[in-house]
Design goal:
Order of helices and strands: HEEEHEEEHHHEHEHEEHHEHEEEEEEE
Number of domains: 2
Oligomer: single chain
Strand order of the largest sheet: 6-7-8-3-9-10
Largest sheet: 6 strands, mixed
Shape: globular
Number of helices: 10
CATH topology of the largest domain: Rossmann fold
Radius of gyration: 24 Å
Structural class: alpha+beta
Bound molecules: adenosine-5'-triphosphate, magnesium ion
CATH superfamily of the largest domain: P-loop containing nucleotide triphosphate hydrolases
CATH architecture of the largest domain: 3-Layer(aba) Sandwich
Amino acid sequence: MGEAGQEPLADASSDRSAVGDLLPASPAKRDRTNRGGSLHLADVNKSFGIVHVLKGVDLAVEPGEFVVFVGPSGCGKSTLLRIIAGLEEQTSGDLRIGGVLMNGVPPAKRGIAMVFQSYALYPHLTVEKNMGLALAQAGVPSPEIRARVAKASGLLRLDALLGRRPAELSGGQRQRVAIGRAIVREPSLFLFDEPLSNLDAALRVGTRIEIAKLHRQLGATMVYVTHDQIEAMTLADKIVVMRGGAIEQVGRPLELYHRPANLFVAGFIGSPTMNFADGAIAARAGATTIGVRPEHLVVVPEGAWTGTVSHAEHLGADTMLYVEVPGMGLLTARVLGDVSHDIGDRVGLTPQDGKIYRFDGAGNAIG
Ligand SMILES: Nc1ncnc2c1ncn2[C@@H]1O[C@H](COP(=O)(O)OP(=O)(O)OP(=O)(O)O)[C@@H](O)[C@H]1O
Ligand SMILES: [Mg+2]
């Protein structure tokens, strides 16, 4: 393996050391006209010993789609991604990439590239060498490596940095190199596991926009895990909401926002989170539980509900009012701009027309 045998820059873990394993198929075998591969999971289960981590996952991803997995910590997002990559084998179920059954197929033969939270670059190699390394190892001729690295570095605005070593780069630049290293392999499927979570807020926004552009330009299929609602809402063609190893709902971002299938999705998608109330107030609406999003509550002198402001967050562009309403509990209202209400004020709250979500006793959406 030569120089590449040295440790990557990031701390070692099974994820990171596996990056180098996800090499491309030899160039001759790659179908360059197929820009994005489809992905199909059928009844995929995974157990670690007696712990059943993934419970019958079914999922179809169309060629060129950008799919984002979200869900609470420990729900199985990374495990599912690692199964798609071939870094972990499912206990049962079928996995197809581009229509081809991938059960038992090693990572390097799946036509995928994976980008992790940690960049795992080789510290002694330049940006150019880091990006081209996998191709060199796969025996791709040097002129082709140079051409592919030049194309990727152009897309990622890394041209001026090709001669630098990782230590001479910012965190955001390193992450772009890690993404570039995936691009040069021309995979049919990109897998990202929280690739931006090491970056500060400004860099996250910049890199998020770059990933969106990249997806448009490459037309590749992308599967992306994140904890960040804004990343999920802005990048995804389709969001997969997971909970406890199972899929709760799959849909376009605004579909999930406007028509959550159940209480869990309603509470998970949207920030600040939806307000819920049950008891008599819900029963009057013909539901076991009702929900109203903070941005759909209007603060008025005399509203449908009356309460006392218990906390206010003045963010400049908007204000979060936390209002204690007898019989309902604490409701969050998001008001545009700065408002003068403060702790102890009595305010009325009225939901906007048609913006009440209703759920039955099993937690499923009604109507
Ligand atoms: N190698 C392993 N052995 C045993 N249990 C594991 C192993 N890998 C993961 N798990 C368990 O499987 C469950 C799912 O883990 P996973 O890493 O997929 O979650 P996640 O959704 O990616 O969480 P996070 O958002 O925190 O990254 C967790 O309960 C975890 O403890
Ligand atoms: Mg994870």
